[in-house]
Automatic annotation (TrEMBL):
This is WGR domain-containing protein. The lineage of its organism: Bacteria, Pseudomonadati, Pseudomonadota, Alphaproteobacteria, Rhodobacterales. Pfam families: WGR. It comes from the Bacteria. InterPro entries: WGR_dom_sf, WGR_domain, YehF/YfeS-like_WGR. PROSITE patterns: WGR. Residues 1-83 form the WGR domain.
């Protein structure tokens, strides 16, 4: 499960992204990965939090999505890369 959020403010010259994803590790643990940074920049910040179950990871993702949406981010459809 993956959600991409973006916030673009032309007045303040800001263009930011935030990607939230839930995945399972090779050892059966579930993790919530958060990536954020400026759109078009080469580097951003990546953080991984390990959760005891998939339900906990999805709940944390939804909570984070709601918080980011309240602060001005909008969900963007995730596009698949071309072959």
């Amino acid at each position: 499960m993956q959600i991409r959020l973006e916030r673009i403010n032309h007045v303040k010259r800001q263009s930011r992204y935030y990607v939230l994803s839930v995945s399972e590790t090779l050892f059966g643990e579930w993790c919530l990965t958060q990536e954020s940074g400026s759109i078009g920049a080469n580097a951003g910040i990546k953080r991984t939090d390990y959760m005891p179950s998939r339900a906990d990871a999805v709940q944390a993702l939804l909570t984070m999505k709601d918080a980011k949406t309240r602060s001005g981010y909008a969900p963007i459809p995730v596009q698949l890369p071309l072959l």
